[in-house]
Amino acid sequence: MMTSFKILALAAGAAFLSSGSFSDIRCSKSNPSNRDTFVQSASVNPDHITAKDNKIQVALLLDTSNSMDGLIDQAKSRLWNIVNPLTTLKYNGKAPQIEIALYEYGNDGIRDDHYIRQVTPLTQDLDLVSEKLFALRTNGGSEYCGAVIRDASANLNWDQDEKSMKLIYIAGNEAFNQGGVDYKEVISKAKNKNIYTNTIFCGDRNEGIQTFWQNGATFGGGKYFNIDSDRKVIYIETPYDIRISECNARLNDTYIYYGSHGLEYKSKQITQDKNAEMQSASNFVERTVAKSKKNAYKNDHWDLVDKAEKDAGFIASMKDEDLPAELKGKSREDLKKAIASKSAERNKIQKEIEELSGKRQKYIDEEMKKRGNNDSDDLGKAIETSILEQARKNGYSL
């Protein structure tokens, strides 16, 4: 039994709509007696069908100079809280694919003239994003906002569809206009490509305005925020946390690794679970919720269930040496049945997590109303607020 969890308070605007009594709190065990029937009738939940023609892409540009340890700590605590509101958005009733990119800048240890580094590209491999985020270290530095925005807007694989939502979030605490790259010019060019820049100053609001952070957001068509990067996050314990966490172990069991690096990726999944739990119990629960969202957490590069969903013909060409030991020597038909069984089980667990997380969020929202505190002064909340606002402007709905 896990210890009591203190759960991160999210805003009411990101709440799921489902509700129910505490008597429904469960993550039921698989029933072997009806598995064959369940597999035959298994289908993708309509809520999880992803649109083929648009995406939500978010690039996080984080200052990793010496003074920014608090910012990086907040990013670790808030990663999954940033992802989860994105998964609730729909465009014409469909859930767009979610992609996250990560940059660091202002770190003297980076071998670049402007001290910037693309840590991850825009990707659905959220375990990779988590791994690289937890590996960030502060050092230095010299913070050139214009340069890192130029690199992110020019070199990331931004989607060309006009319905896709493309957002940059840059956070730091030094003057926005440092360096030889004109931030106004690069931000304006990004906006012309429908990439909107949002700025997050780590410090006093007026100081951020005076040092051009608000001006950057104005040119970028985004929002300006200030946060206390050293602030500790408020958590609220709910009756649903342990059950959601227990579902995580069952969810992990539905992944079937393949390929020469499959086992390595499977191990990374477990490692990032541990990183989330080590950061906070809330982070662990939020990560579990994110993992239940097909439009955000995709692992077709190492998981046969996701791969078969993307490319049904892939199974026929599988080499025996690329399979885990328990599936080696199986006929293609038996392999398909094994994958279908895991897929059906995963869909069931994901639905249970969705129901539990909706009830959990309702509980948190009600508790926050009682406290009269919206916990707005942090990185995750700043990003969540602007994403939801930008989404409504672009025709997305919850």
What is the tally of helical segments? 13
SSE run: HEHEEHHEHEHHEHHHHHH
Sheet/helix structural class: alpha/beta
Shape verdict? globular
Percent of residues in beta strands: 5-15%
**Poorly predicted spans:** 1-26, 28-51
Mean pLDDT across residues: 85
As a whole number of angstroms, the C-alpha radius of gyration is 21 Å
Strand order of the largest sheet: 3-2-1-4-5-6
How many strand elements?
6
Fraction of helical residues = 40-55%
Characterize the largest beta sheet: strand count, sense, and whether it forms a barrel.
6 strands, mixed
N-end to C-end Cα span: 34 Å
Polypeptide structure, described:
With about 400 residues, the chain is of the alpha/beta class. The chain is about 45% helix and about 15% strand. It has 13 helices and six strands. The protein has helices at about 35-40, 70-85, 125-135, 145-155, 185-190, 205-210, 215-220, 240-250, 260-280, 280-290, 305-310, 330-370, 380-395, and strands spanning about 50-65, 95-105, 115-125, 165-170, 195-200, 220-225. A six-stranded mixed β-sheet has the order 3-2-1-4-5-6, sandwiched between helices. Strand 1, helix 2 and strand 2 form a beta-alpha-beta unit. Helix 3 crosses helix 9 (about 260-280) and helix 4 (about 145-155) packs parallel to helix 5. The longest helix has about 40 residues, at about 330-370. Residues about 1-25 and about 30-50 have low confidence and may be disordered.
Summary of the model, kept short:
By secondary structure, this protein is of the alpha/beta class. It has 13 helices and 6 strands. The chain has helices at residues 35-41, 69-87, 126-135, 145-155, 183-192, 205-210, 213-220, 241-252, 262-279, 281-291, 304-310, 332-371, 379-393; strands spanning 50-63, 95-105, 116-123, 165-172, 195-202, 221-227.
